[in-house]
Amino acid sequence: MTQKPKPLQSIKVDGPIPAHLARSIIEETLRAAILDGRLPCGTALRQQDLADLFGVSRMPVREALRQLEAQALLSVTAHKGAVVAPLIQGDATQTYELRILLESEAMRQSIPLLTAADHEQAARYIDELETQHDYTEIGRLNRLLHMAMYSKAPNRRLLRLVEDGLNEEERFLRFNLEAMGLGKLSQDDHRAMLQAVMERDVERSVALLEQHLNRGVEVINRYLASPEAQHRKAAR
């Protein structure tokens, strides 16, 4: 009889964890495992199992799970506790409508406060995206690029909500980007947006962002409706 795989076995812990670093180490370790797929969607994460794995009490585990839930990487369900959240599915349009509202406001707040160094960092991310072929790294760089343009928004709660949406998109792109056929077009959008940001043209920047995200949701919806996406979903 074939044994059912245990996702937690994919997580390696090197030696004892210092008590004062336990929460952050557990959070970052689980976050990385969720983003790279070692902990698939729907995986239940039980506090005692994690406490045993990391060699700590349940308190830092509970705190780490709370942080990951706040980042929209986990959801809490009846009878299962903390569960790895699903990827973008049929609600892609609603997800992106919310992203447009949140990211537009973050961009409006951020643009007047961005420095030349911030512009240069964003440009470096675009250059890296242009030549990157690793889909995991593409998802990460895309998130960092968008946050670089929003990072100076003084409303920190707004930024946390924005990053939650980008985290969700990053996970989706890591597992589906190659099949979706996205590529150079996305970088053209990014370059046009950054140019408007550098010129401090807030209205044009926001209009280009909205166009970019609407283009993204069109591609995602088209992909989710395709036979290939349905097959991949059934295979999970």
Automatic annotation (TrEMBL):
Domain HTH gntR-type: 20-87
Keywords on record: DNA-binding, Transcription, Transcription regulation
Transmembrane segments: none
Alphabetical list of Gene3D superfamilies matching this protein: GntR ligand-binding domain-like, Winged helix-like DNA-binding domain superfamily/Winged helix DNA-binding domain
Pfam family, one: FCD
Organism domain of life: Bacteria
Single GO molecular function: DNA binding
Record's protein name: GntR family transcriptional regulator
Protein source organism: Pseudomonas shahriarae
